[in-house]
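hey so u asked for the seq, here:
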Amino acid sequence: MEHIYQQSQFGEDWFTYPNLYSEMVRRFATGSRFVELGCHRGKSTSYLAVEIANSGKRIDLYCVDIWLDVTQRDAFFENMQPVRDYYTAAMHMSTMEAVKLFPDEYFDFVFIDAFHSYEAVRDDIIHWLPKVKPGGVLAGHDYCVEEPDTWPGVVRAVNQTLPMDKVRLSESCYIYEKS
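ran it, structure tokens below
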């Protein structure tokens, strides 16, 4: 399946981590579970879904977004139509509502890219990290070391919540592998 994420209807320019998503699909086996927190119009989500499709693996992909208006939500579903068979659920709710629906150690990969305030990122890390299996990955976007004023809440929350000696950085993302 060809990637669709570069089509104009996605309208986003901030998807900077395709290598991370490709790495996660390669790394985890059939039966794995992924969740993306903050899907907006589906650009990054569609990339991940196509990677899953092309891998031949059966990976459950959950999509969580509050979609502040119906236009954003409708755009997500329309944009994701070509890959509808490669995501498990699109959940229209906050990340704090969604986290309550899953048992601990449920996910192999959790990606945080929802609200970018210090409190929101801190809460996402604190509440979603227990949902990651040992050997799984919690990662997130907009950890901008070169430009720390771009998303200072993200940088501060990550620095204060995760053991930084165990965090690697790539493509403006922080990546924590749970032991």
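The mean pLDDT is 96. The radius of gyration is 15 Å.
lmk if thats what u needed
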